[in-house]
Amino acid sequence: MTQDEVADQAQAEVVELPAASRATEIAVNELELVYAFIYARVGNRADAEDLTQQVALKAIPRLRQNAAASSIRGYLFATARSALGGFWSTRLGLSEAELREDLLPAPATDPPSEEGTETVQRILAELSDNYRRVLELRFLHGYSLKEVAKEMNSTVGAIKVMQLRALRAAAKVRPE
Amino acid sequence: MNGKRENRVEKIVSDLLRGRRLKLRGGDAEEKAAITTAARLAGVRQGPQRMQPAFRKRLARALEQPQGEGWVTRRAALVAGLGLAAGAAAGGFASRAFEPQPVHASDPIRPSNGRWIDVAAMGDLVEGQGKRVTAGGVGAFLFRHGDEVTAVSSICSHLPCELWWDGGHSHLVCPCHPATFAADGHPSDPYRHSALNKVYVRVVGGRVEVLGTE
Question: Are A111 and A33 in the same domain?
Fold first, then answer.
């Protein structure tokens, strides 16, 4: 059998089996949103990939094939929130009970992949000018500490302290 | 948190902005609010992210594995459109090409110049708690079961990072990614990585010895 025939056979197999995997298909499509949701909370690709895989392996096998799409999304995001709770708990060496409730990811909004930027903008808007500026330059514009210090007419040491205080202050803001 | 907190948080911020994995340590919990906020800010700086093709393939391959009753079948994953049709035609080569080959990690560690190293007294070991020891170049976690002791490698079977013992959850935790292992070395999370290498251990006159190196 040639490679093309093998591919045709594989294609035929795909076409012949639509009903068997309806819930799986929905879930796999939702995983893009799950990945974006997780990435927006861990801030790096490697951890986001690990956690998304964890969610997929845990949630997809448990789906009922006739489940409603909204239920599938809800279950995937509930699993993602649980995985994120476990992630922070493990990385910080704290029990999940010790992680303050507000540190755990809030229930996902719809669509969950697009709320991150707006939420962060709302958080930054609540900060004092200096705190907002240092976080904007560092995180949104990608400035180095040195560049931030120059821009804000300050020293690297002072900016480091300001960055920590600004992050603490941002953590206290509750975006509506 | 050792040293000045602003320095430690800056190191974490700097790693995040370089796209690196979050590597935290025990004392970082004191700045948990600042750290989780930093991750969140770093996460939105490039807008909503999409899965990379290599990861989609790796994920498809993970879903393709038979995982027992109720797990996704290869056929279901094919229909789900995760790019496995090509993988099926090529015997799964495409997905494997993006992933390191599985680590064979179930063999016990038998150093070629091995010697028994005294690492602890039986009295130092607490039932149900792991104890980290080193025997020359071999790092291990010891577990007491009555009068017997078992040992597993202290290195994760997936990424070469030093594990730590989480007494609250009674498992070994990798600091580099969300992988956990039970005291017998078997994975206790959904990743199903290879088991940890066993380490030879014996009890002689109330002392615990591990087969290590000079």
Answer: yes
